[in-house]
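Title: Prediction job returns without error message
Component: structure pipeline
Severity: low
Priority: P3
Assignee: unassigned

Description:
Job completed but the reporter wants confirmation the result is attached to the right record. Sequence as submitted:
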Amino acid sequence: MRLIERRIGLLFAGFLVAFLLVVCRAFWLQGVEASTLSSQALDQQTQTVMVPGLRGAILDRNGTRLASSEDAATIVTTPYLVKKKQKAAALIAPILKQKKGEVLKALTSESGFAYLAKDVDLSTATKIEKLGIEGIEQIPGSRRTYPQGEMAGQVIGVVGSENQGLTGVEEGENSALAGEEGERRVVTDALGDPIKLETVKEARDGEDVELTLDPVIQETTEQVLAKVGETYSPKGATAIVMDPQTSEILAMANWPPIDPGDLAHVESNEELLNRATGFNYEPGSTFKAFTVSAALEEGLVTPTTEFTLPPTLEVGERIIHDAEERGTETMTVEQILARSSNIGAVEIGLRVGATKFSRWMEKFGFGKPTGVQFPNEERGIVPKLSEYSGATMGNLPMGQGAAVTPMQMVQGYATIAHGGIERPPQLVKRIGEERIPEPHGHRVISATVAEEVRKMLEGVLGPEGTASEVSVPGYSLAGKTGTAQVAEDGGYSKTKYVASFIGFAPAMDPKFLAAVIVDQPEGEIYGGSVAAPAFGEIAAFSLPYLGVPQE
């Protein structure tokens, strides 16, 4: 009897201990860990979804989209949830336009997550969703499209995998174009079905950026440049068209072109380069207009001042020749510019002197960015006065010994065309609803000197000029040819040249300005035969298109 009572007592004690343990555990869970467990439960039933803000569009001056964004989806997989992998791969591959093996590799990945396709259009995403394959999901996103294809490809630029601008306007105006991601919280029940959708943060779309580019002039300029590329097979080429009255850029073309939406054929970063702002080159004879402008402004010469020019000229260790052999000859400043005499340009530069010449190079903006709204603009390479050698003044006045960019040359010629007033070139016209104000200009040379130089540059396309074969009926043209040896290995190449032409029209009241720079053309090398005819073609179309009346 006592044994039975003892067993009952032990059993009761066991139940009592178990009961006390349950009570203590319940107290601990409800009183101490309640908030933590509640949070964990909420996390298990809550999913945070990031909602992308659409990137702003890039527009031309007429509002046509050059780059835009649209909703898209990234297709992902949780491999271990996909049951019939072979069948799934066979169904998914043709929709994504991929090889079955590539899809199967993702579906059989040992990781818990794998990408099948990034940023596909919604139509494709819908087809994948309708397959109803467990383990295949979608992440909302957006993708960049370029409706005009190759038009202004290097100017527009490209974006990276995270939708950030990498080059061109896409990079330069990224802070305005890029939207902000939003955040949504999806609450699900125990079965995983959504029961509540909360917006934690609204997504914000990026702002549109409107450029000054005219699509018709841009297309024409690219077509002309393509013909130059096909004819002379250069290393590269660029052309810029500007309204010198407003400093707005109407076209900025590169050859060879790229399609920002299809980079499969792009083999190097150099192909993405916008040569208009990123190409450093020695300008050659196109620089002589600035040498003459400086001498005129200093009161050292007039257009009719005569120089007796020897067949060769020694400056320091440099022997200067003209392009064509000749005897001693007398030329006026006007003839020196029209016939592009190297010796004549150096004689004018020597009259200006090294100190003042260095100052004038700075005044015309060489050696510093122009301020055009484009990222990573090169500044050229201009020697400081303290770095001048005995031969420097035998080089600089004729456009050797210093490197410039096409945009710097356009800005300089626009100064001459616009009565001596220099203003930064304008590429961006509006950001969002805010119109970019016209930049303030400053005077570099007098209106009188600018007019004299325009008149002399008209002679370059005259009977004695180096671009005498270029003309546009009904309009007077002014400009300058350039044929510059490429600097390499501490000297100058005898086979590589940069051919260029920069000009404007009408000569005495310019409403149009264009530059054509061709890097290392094959066959022909001279600016007068390679670049000047391209300028003439662009001018022949643009002048009437812009409504410029014939003279």
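Comment from assignee: result matches the submitted record. The first strand starts at residue 46 and ends at 51.
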